[in-house]
Amino acid sequence: MSEAATPLVTASPGLLASLDPLLREWLPRQRWFAGKGRPVTGFSPVAATELLPADARLGLYHLIVRAHQPLVPAPGAPPHPGDCYQLLIGVREVLPPRLAPALIGHVAQGPLAGHTVYDALYDARPAEVLLEALRTRDRVGPLRFERDRSQEIRSGLVPRLMTAEQSNSSVVYGDTFILKLLRRILPGVNPDLELPLALAREGCPRVPAPTAWMAAHLDGQPWVLGVLQPYVQGATDGWELALRELAKGEDFAAEARALGRATAEVHTALARALPPVTLGHSALEQLVGGMLARLEEAVHAVPALRPYAPGLRSAFTALGGLAAEGRTWTAQRVHGDLHLGQCLRSPDGEWSLIDFEGEPARPLAERRMPQPPVRDIAGMLRSFDYAAHSADAPVPGWAETCRAAYCTGYAEVAGRDPRTDPVLLRAYETDKAVYEVVYEARHRPGWLPVPLSAVRRLAVADPTRSP
């Protein structure tokens, strides 16, 4: 939606104004809010849709709002318009005790004066409304509910909100489906739907095929809002599994190797579905330039990086040197934010990859660009390091063993070992570690020593030696 576009409101025009003071307090406290550390100065509506009338016992509104926050743009950059968020607002006269964690506040004025509003995903009835809309392929205002007609969606599945920390929100329906609702949203084709649909067409079993999806159509552009996929009952995510094995002092190499094979299968299927490209000198110059720019921004934002900046910079200039000599690399669509928490191990031992949204902080167009597959590999290698540092009792050599096993498994399927291209691998792992430093400094300062330990290693690494 362009900045000059007229907001689409199919609910009371005064709705957002009445919610404004409550949302200013509530929104920054949410795990998925991206603008932490800066006050919210106001909201502007992108779309507001009534799903259940507020004059009933339970009201339900779907909102897409732009949150305005003070931000000084970089020199020459246009002003930041503010991030857009998807909200599902429940309305009740009195909030029952079971919904106390969902409370947003009590409305003092406007069309909902005297009512209590809350995050509706905590409530079974609103969650049922969403599933029924997906099942029937409903249309409500700008909202479009679509589904794969070859997959059945039964009615009456009992919903429950997943309360684990996430950058989005997920609702499980009867251990049959899981609906991931994106919170910070953007107009355009979202890889979290695009790539699983492409992999489904290729018959790739490593990624659950989308059953249904939810979007808003505004000013001729789609805004992907949520994706419904089969729920892998009894599955454990890779992060939980790794920490569990670490706590027992158990070896994780066999699982890491199997996960490497699964990653390579997904990369191979993506290369079939969406043809790769060759990164020549110009493209590589831009890639290296982006890495260097992110490093400079990170050093400015996190002073603890300054002593390591020259060594980290060498990881990127070494890659630029190979590009200047005429070296090229193949790029393709990749996961974009791969780590242990984005992988599920089913009870029968099979690994699946989920959450293809990419790094939410990066622009959508950048997340959809072809990248060397080693970008995903570097993310997973960093994740093994995170797991090792998270253990109560460190297991010497655990991360190194997992990293080696993962690369071995990947090579068994892909036919190429990422360790045989150490300059490219070091550059991507360094770029990831720099991103982690900034993220932890802003959101979880207690975790900052984890990426800083990698920074110290990468700053003195020999770029010509396999890690």
Which fold name is given in CATH as the topology of the largest domain? Aminoglycoside 3'-phosphotransferase, Chain: A, domain 2
Largest sheet: 7 strands, mixed
Percent in helix: 25-40%
Question: Beta-strand level of the residues, as a percent range?
Answer: 15-25%
Shape type: globular
Summing up helix and strand content along with how strands pair, one would put the structural category as alpha+beta
Report the total helices. Answer: 12
The whole-number mean of residue pLDDT values reads 92
Topology at a glance:
Elements: E1 8-10, H1 15-26, E2 42-52, E3 59-68, E4 83-92, E5 103-106, E6 116-119, H2 124-136, E7 139-140, E8 143-147, E9 159-161, E10 169-173, E11 177-181, E12 184-185, H3 191-201, E13 212-218, E14 221-230, E15 236-237, H4 238-247, H5 253-273, E16 277-279, H6 281-301, H7 309-324, E17 329-331, E18 343-345, E19 351-353, H8 364-367, H9 374-390, H10 398-414, H11 422-443, H12 449-459
Parallel strand pairs: 1-2
Antiparallel strand pairs: 2-3, 3-4, 4-6, 4-12, 5-6, 7-8, 8-13, 9-10, 10-11, 11-14, 13-14, 15-18, 16-17, 18-19
Helix pairs in contact: 3-5, 4-9, 5-10, 6-7, 6-11, 7-11, 9-10, 9-11, 11-12
